[in-house]
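Late entry, evening session. Most of the bench is empty. Finally got around to the prediction I had been postponing all week. Sequence below, unchanged from the version circulated by S.P.
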Amino acid sequence: MSDAPGRPMKYPYTISAKIAQFPMKYYIQNQWIWRYWMIGIAVSVPVFYKIHKMANSPGNVSKWAEIRRKEAAEHH
């Protein structure tokens, strides 16, 4: 595999050249949105996991199955 070219294009006109020369590290280090995005994910994942566990508990599943059975009986 060859190394990156020693002299990058003055104006990257292809999509791959634009992606290769995009200063992503600079944006991640200097923009607030990336930091708060990571904090938001770290805070919301445990909350959504807890909601998921409560909604899919055996008691809740059987309760909703009974509700759906009653609704189906009313329509027939």
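Two things to note before I forget:
The longest helix spans residues 32-55.
Helices lie at 15-21, 24-30, 32-55, 58-75.
Will write this up properly tomorrow.
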